[in-house]
Specification:
The chain has two domains: 3-187, Butyryl-CoA Dehydrogenase, subunit A, domain 2, CATH 2.40.110.10; 190-331, Butyryl-CoA Dehydrogenase, subunit A, domain 3. It is 52% helix and 14% strand. It has helices at residues 3-16, 25-34, 52-64, 72-83, 90-98, 189-224, 236-262, 266-291, 294-297, 303-313, 321-331, and strands at residues 103-105, 113-115, 118-127, 134-138, 145-149, 155-159, 169-178, 184-186, 226-227, 230-231. The strands form three sheets. Strands 1-4-5-8 form a four-stranded mixed β-sheet. Strands 2-3-7-6 form a four-stranded antiparallel β-sheet, with no helix packed on it. The protein has a two-stranded antiparallel sheet with strand order 9-10.
């Protein structure tokens, strides 16, 4: 990583190390906005840190080590889309988002239909939609990108409960919602493809960071918990299982870093990295729960924050499992 990214990583860890797992959105959001993490990918001339997608992945990864509840992924996606648009209100929107405003978007496939300047359909898996001032949307054919004011007539928001308590997801229904020309960011399918590939990379980074977090928590447990007057960390079989988790995490990190630099097709790379990293995170979280023994089985234990996050991440972003299995077999 560059010197700037190394410094940013150290800064984020210093903040997040003082937080508990599953830190609430209300607790962390004002602080991360104040520290400028939301503009990590934006050009310096627009007030950002100019670290691109690699910087965005770093912020998501480090916050995921504590399975933070902050809606960082949709926030980064919408800010980046706005920053490189020709919206008349672009600068004002960026200023608002810089100081803690939220524009959200779906982390799942879009079922919206946009025709005759009207939006119909429902967005699913929209984080913290009740706190969002606007929604980044794209139509089902993925050839139009727009930013819709959350207060627009015809928009209804409904909370969708999930097992993952570290995210608050909503369904956002659009019924003949007016789409003014001034709200359209792009009519180019390449712009939508860029947002979707970034989304997959950020979910992959979230999986990587959370896998690192659950492994660190497991190692701490094994070093403290004793059996037969010896720390569990001294037992060779448990050492081997932890080493296996670590090796998979290193593979996930290597894949993510490589594709951020060398990918010729970002859409293909994003889908592949997301699929691989979500599988690694799921496996790491399940094994970590077993390594915690009986206490890990208790639903109140933090192991479940990671495990439920892993189960949800597998269903977000690119989810065509058969296709991505082919991609993984031929692309890694």
């Amino acid at each position: 990583m560059s010197e700037m990214l190394n410094e940013l990583q150290a800064s984020i860890r210093q903040v997040m190390d003082d937080k508990s797992n599953g830190t609430s959105e209300q607790e962390i959001w004002p602080q991360l906005a104040e520290l400028g993490w939301l503009l990590v990918g934006v050009d310096e001339e627009k007030g950002g840190l100019e670290q691109g997608l690699a910087g965005m992945c770093l912020v998501v990864r480090e916050m995921a080590r504590r399975v933070s509840a902050a809606p960082i992924i949709p926030a980064l996606l919408t800010i980046d889309a706005i920053a490189y648009s020709n919206l008349v209100s672009r600068d004002a929107l960026l200023e608002n988002l810089m100081y803690g405003g939220l524009a959200s978007c779906s982390l799942a496939s879009s079922e919206l239909q946009i025709s005759d300047n009207k939006i119909n359909g429902t967005l699913t898996a929209v984080p913290s939609a009740d706190n969002a001032s606007a929604f980044l949307v794209w139509d089902k054919t993925e050839d139009m990108l727009a930013l819709v004011d959350a207060a627009t007539v015809g928009i209804e928001i409904a909370h969708r409960p999930t097992w993952d308590s570290t995210r608050r997801l909503f369904d956002v229904a659009f019924s003949n919602v007016a789409l003014p020309e001034s709200a359209i960011l792009s009519r180019d399918s390449a712009s939508v493809a860029s947002v979707l590939s970034q989304r997959d990379f950020l979910i992959a980074a979230d999986c990587l960071g959370a896998a690192e977090g659950v492994l660190a928590m497991t190692l701490e447990h094994l070093m403290v918990r004793e059996q037969f007057s010896r720390p569990l960390a001294m037992f060779q079989a448990l050492k081997h299982r932890c080493a296996d988790i670590k090796s998979q995490i290193v593979a996930a990190e290597s894949l993510l870093m490589d594709k951020l630099v060398n990918a010729e097709d970002l859409a293909l790379a994003g889908a592949t990295v997301k699929q691989f990293n979500s599988e690694v995170f799921s496996w790491a979280a399940e094994d970590a729960l077993q390594l915690h023994g009986g206490v890990g089985m208790a639903s109140e234990h933090d192991c479940h924050l990671f495990l439920k996050r892993a189960m949800l991440n597998k269903h977000l972003g690119h989810t065509d499992k058969q296709t991505t299995q082919i991609l993984v077999a031929n692309f890694i």
